[in-house]
Structure formats: structure tokens, C-alpha cells
Amino acid sequence: MEKEGTEIVEETEQMIDQKEPENPVSAVVDSKEMRAVVLTGFGGLNKLKVTKKPMPEPQEGEVKIRVKACGLNFLDLMVRQGNIDNPPKTPLVPGFECSGIVESVGENTTGFEIGDRVMAFVNYNAWAEVVCTPLDFVYKIPDDMTFPEAAAFSLNFVAAYMMLFEVANLQEGMSVLVHSAGGGVGQAVAQLCSTVPNVTVFGTASPFKHEAIKHSVTHLFDRNLDYVPEVKKISPEGVDIVLDCLSGENTGKGLTLLKPMGTYILYGSSNMVTGETKSFFSFAKSWWQVEKVNPVKLYEENKVMAGFSLLNLLFKQGGCSRVKTAVQKLLSLYDQKKIKPIVDSLWALEEVKEAMQRIHDRGNIGKLILDVEKSPTPLMANDSTETSEAGEEEEEQEGDNDNKERMPFIQ
Ligand SMILES: NC(=O)c1ccc[n+]([C@@H]2O[C@H](COP(=O)([O-])OP(=O)(O)OC[C@H]3O[C@@H](n4cnc5c(N)ncnc54)[C@H](OP(=O)(O)O)[C@@H]3O)[C@@H](O)[C@H]2O)c1
After folding, report:
1. Tell me: domain 155-315, CATH 3.10.180.10, correct?
2. Going by CA atoms, what residue is nearest to atom 17 of ligand 1?
3. Of the candidates 274, 228, 290, which has an alpha carbon nearest to the alpha carbon of residue 390?
4. Which fold has domain 23-153+342-403?
5. Which helix (H) or strand (E) holds 251?
6. N or C: lower Cβ tally within 10 Å for the chain?
């Protein structure tokens, strides 16, 4: 067990001036401490700190991983805000996925050797230099898969795969509607659809992304427009699968668009995030709209309404063997060069606030990665006059450094 009282909280900005060791990994291998991102309480970006925590050691059946890269997901913004069901107590180390090298294994842990290159799911605690997680959540990665790619792979591709192939039974010639088509899950959905012949993909995204992602989907719509008439102009009978991460009013629209025997899957509620801190109004509006769905209409119209949560399946519902099968199929598609995770940008742990801000600002195309060995880039004076959507609901005054910005390392 980690002792909370032994934590030494270091402000992000203080760490910027520290000289990085020439080889950060070997320099800390024997250390009794490690760096981690800590969420000190639910709220805005200022609740995130880089902290030294006691080094975790693997328990029976666990694998200890020297982390190289961590995935930053939209869900992490919602966790930061406390915008999830039954949020755990803070302080906590956020993050649900990482990639790295096996450093040791606990008792009765078979199948992994020290030095194996792996990716893993973690039930929180992923944003750290070292992570311990049960072996059922750890997967070896191919030699040619980079650590950032591996950290961009697990959550997005497994969720996309299970929704398309296990819940909705995607077949040749079908059509799929996906929101946030330029994001981590959106790009995984687009790539997986391209592995099946003649699948039509309708996507919505912010207009500035259209040029960059137009090749990945068949039809792309401005997320600000009403996409229902646009889809109907092209396909009057509607679509076979709707993947909806914008619960609320989109649920009704999605069900309207479904062909008979079509499947609507609700898997997220990005639209509940309207600013840097939790909005109770968006929360209430979203759930009120979802609850208005009439189940009798579903059977009359021959429509399937489903929900999907990969993390609940993994961590609460004993679904790790199903997930392992999906990972194996996905790794085979990767080996055949049919899919490849898209990394938007790499950020140091100390840059986690800026990285999250990029998602709030809808700036990402593909996945944001926290690169554990990356040194933070120096802060630059912010000459931007744009106000971010996230900034509109600031909860607390930020320090001087919040008037500055860093440039991400774009891959
Ligand atoms: N159920 C599951 O198992 C599961 C697994 C993974 C992810 N998810 C969900 O899938 C969705 C996508 O996840 P992701 O990690 O891949 O994120 P992502 O799509 O990369 O998220 C960023 C993008 O979301 C769009 N967006 C929509 N509403 C937004 C808002 N209120 N604020 C900022 N951006 C918003 C923006 O794209 P545009 O402006 O272009 O629309 C933005 O660039 C999320 O809702 C997430 O919770 C669910």
C-alpha cells in the first residue's frame, strides 16, 4: 500500500527547470519513488500535479511495468471533472492504459518475462513511471509497434472493434455513422470499417479537421450542422449502425436514422463536457433526453439499442477473456498492416494540463500520448487572442504560467 503522507507534491512549473538525467530510465530503476500525475481533487486543470509517489511492487498475479507511454482519453477529462458514475476518492493517479517494458512479475504470474514489450489496461494509476496491473490486462506488443502507438491502441481500438463486430455485427455493404470521427475512437472506427468490403462511413467532426481525415471516411459532416438531413440526402433509408458518444439529443437522432434491424450504440457522453469544470445542466439535459427513448417503439421499428463500456466490461464485469480475444484479432490486423493507431501528439507528464486543454479545444486528430521520458518543452508567451471553450467555465484563478502555452510535439 502506498502511504499518502509521504508524497512530495511538486508544481509542474518547478519541474521544468530541473536538468533531466541523461538516461532517465536507468537513473531511477533502483529508486523507491517514481513520478506520477496526481489529481488532487475533482475540477479544472489546476487539480493536476506531478508528484513523487512510493514505487509500487507487483502483488501475486501482477506485472510491474516500466512505463514508456500513456494514453490520454476523453474519459480522463470526465474523471478530472468528477463527471462519471461513482467517482473514486481523490487524490488519485488518473489513466487507464499504458505501454512499456516488464520490470518484474509477482508470484504466480506466468506468461511474461522481464524485458517483454507490453501494453496494458490499468484501473486508474496509468499516468506514472511505473505501474502494476493484473496479468489478464497485459498484452505483448509486436516488435515494430512503437510505445506511443501501443498506448494509442488498446482502449480506442478494442472499444471500436467490440462495438462494430461484437455488438453491431458489422458486415459487408453496411453503413456506419460515427461522431468525433477525427478523435481516437473515431479514427479507430474508420480504420476498422475499411477492413470490411463496401462499408460506408458517415462521420461528423469539427470543420478544420475535414481536410486531414476526409480520406478515412466516405462522407464527412460539420459537427455544428444537423447531420440527419445530410445523411438522409445520401442514404434515404438511413444507416445500419450508429455509434454515439454524444448522449442526449443525439440518441433520438441516431435512432431516427437507423434502418430496420440496425443497431444504435451509446458509448460516451462527450457533450456533457461544456467547459473546464463539471456542468450539472449538461449532465441533467443529457440523461433526461436518453431516458425519453420508448422501448415499445424499438420493437415496433425493429431497432436495436445497446450500450458499451469497455472499462466496466474489463474491471467490473469480468470480461478480460473477451477483451483478450479482441486484442489478438486486432494485433493480427496490425501485423497485416490493415490498421495503425494515429498519434496526434506527445506530451511530457508535466505537460498534462496543456495536453488536456488540446482535447477541450477539440484540437486533436487521433490520440494524445503522455511520453514518460519526454522533457517538457519550455513555456512560450501566449500571443493567442482566442478564448478556449474550456476557459469559459474557469473555477479558480490559475497561476502566471497559465498565460503561457507550450507547443505540442506533433508526430
Ligand atoms: N464506452 C467505451 O468503452 C469508450 C471507450 C473509449 C472512448 N469512449 C468515449 O468515446 C468518445 C471519444 O473518446 P476519445 O478518447 O477517442 O476522444 P476523442 O474523440 O479523441 O475526443 C476529442 C474529440 O471529441 C470531440 N468532442 C465532442 N464533444 C466535445 C466536447 N464537449 N469537448 C471537447 N471535444 C469534444 C472533438 O472532436 P470534434 O470537434 O471534431 O467533434 C474532440 O476533438 C468519448 O465520449 C469517450 O468517453 C468510450
Report:
1. no
2. 74
3. 274
4. Quinone Oxidoreductase; Chain A, domain 1 (3.90.180)
5. helix 249-257
6. N
